[in-house]
Design a protein that fits this description.
By secondary structure, the chain is an all-alpha fold. Helices cover about 80% and strands about 0% of the residues. Helix 1 packs antiparallel against helix 2 and helix 5 runs antiparallel to helix 6.
Amino acid sequence: MAPDRIDEKVVENQIKDVIQDLYQVMVQVTAYDLTSRPSKDVLENSTIQLQHSLQKIHNTANSPTAQATMPSVPPELIQYVDTGRNPDIYTREFVERTRKMNQTMKGKFGAFSDFRDVLATEMARAMPELIEDIGLVVERTHGDKEKVMRNVR
């Protein structure tokens, strides 16, 4: 593994530590006794340990190597999951939206290509002295120069 990449096991273990510390705080709060001095000290130590665990994972997540290697999760996906919905459904909807947008763009490209060819043909008929320039423009816009020129004659 590359030395500048964060090991996923390290992050996983840090998250497990945070969960364990949260559990310890929950246990201490549940068993807290106002009259007992040891309960206060144990709860205080558990809270401090939780703080250290959170600080450790925060430092790991904000390190320069983490910024470069950690995958970016779209905020929309996080909101989707926060509302209790299935991320697989989000992915499926995203793929369908992307497919529809691609089809729309393909249709627009086709329409503009047809428009380019018709415009070039009509311009070449109206201004035969510009036929070479028109052919050059059609060629540079990835059109079929020969097809346009055949329609002019």
